[in-house]
Amino acid sequence: MTRLDTAPPANMRPVILTCGDPAGIGPELAAKAAAKLRASVPFCWVGDPAHLPKGTKYQEIERPSDAMSIAGTALPVLRHDFPAAAPAGAPDPENARAVIDVIARGVDLVMRGEGSALCTSPINKKALKDGANFAFPGHTEYLAHLAGGARVVMMLASPMLKVVPATIHIALSKVPQAFTRDVLRDTVRITFEGMQRDFGYHSPRIAVAGLNPHAGEGGAMGREELEWMTREIKDLRADGYAITGPLSADTMFHARAREAYDVAICAYHDQALIPIKTLDFDGGVNVTLGLPFIRTSPDHGTGYDIAGKGVATPASLIAALKMAADMGRNRG
């Protein structure tokens, strides 16, 4: 077990943590995570120190590498001034552009090798759209844009389960049209490469959930499994992937079933996220696979309703920072 005060390896680079929406719980969780992790997972926070909770022990730094020597005693801060204050729970449109700029700055730092990974605190897409005409559906799409239009997939990961939804934030009625042969093949490829490169699996075992109840039950409950999914999965197996499916989603997430695979690919958002949030609500981490850099994020929102009250738990952020550091070591 790693001691909290154990010095990191000399060649280790810090994780870059963006501030997210400063009116949410991001700044207070950064302070709590720094106090908990100390030097075991060095990270530097990019944001306006005026937005940190009163009494936060922090130290401004000039470059990310400076964080390595002070992470054990204070929160290292790469200062990024915002134009307005950030009252808890009340996002200010004047700060929207700075929130976006911090994300871009974080990406630039990891792309230049100054950080081992990027960990992003939650943002509010509507607040960014209202204040700065943010043109992206969310964090993931903006990060893909900054990376030159990379094809990416979202993974939710914890020690208990790793899941990838092949389609994400679309209406359920649109899933059968969006979940295509090409989408499944791309999702399998990106997931396989990410599991090898970032999680250290030599030959990851992939399970694919069917689109329909009982994986279509021979066509009685839907025909996608018969018409293309079974054939595509067979072809992927012939290409060398250790892949099974289509499986009935209602029987593939209990403990014994999870022993048979390393990652599950699901057809749509809730099919993937309900099981992991049920199994490990606080420990689940949002990971973006397919980027030229590592990106994790806590699996929760801005928490406006509890911001500033001191009750927000840093468990998911700590899990995201730890996973980012581990992935950095695997990739590095």
User: How many helices?
Assistant: 11
User: What spatial order of strands do you see in the largest sheet?
Assistant: 3-4-2-1-5-12-11-6-7-10-8-9
Q: Mean pLDDT, rounded to whole units?
A: 93
Total DSSP E strands: 12
Structural class: alpha/beta
What CATH first level of the largest domain would be assigned? Alpha Beta
Gyration radius from CA atoms, angstroms:
20 Å
Q: What kind of sheet is the major sheet?
A: 12 strands, mixed
Helix amount = 25-40%
Beta percentage is 15-25%
CATH topology of the largest domain: Isopropylmalate Dehydrogenase
How many structural units, i.e. domains?
2
Give the second-level CATH assignment, the architecture of the largest domain.
Answer: 3-Layer(aba) Sandwich
Q: End-to-end distance, in Å? A: 22 Å
Q: What order do the SSEs take from the amino end to the carboxyl end, as H and E?
A: EHEEHEHEHHEEHHEHEHEHEEH
Shape, principal axes of CA atoms: globular
Summarize this structure as a short list of keywords or feature phrases.
332 residues; alpha/beta; Isopropylmalate Dehydrogenase; 2 domains; 11 helices; 12 strands; 36% helix; globular; disordered N terminus
Word description of this protein:
By secondary structure, the chain is of the alpha/beta class. It has two domains: 205 residues, 3-Layer(aba) Sandwich (Isopropylmalate Dehydrogenase); 120 residues, Isopropylmalate Dehydrogenase (3-Layer(aba) Sandwich), CATH 3.40.718.10. Helices cover 36% and strands 16% of the residues. The protein has eleven helices and twelve strands. It has a twelve-stranded mixed sheet, with helices on both faces. α3 packs across α4. The longest helix has 19 residues. It starts with 14 loop residues before the first strand and ends with a helix. The N terminus is likely disordered.
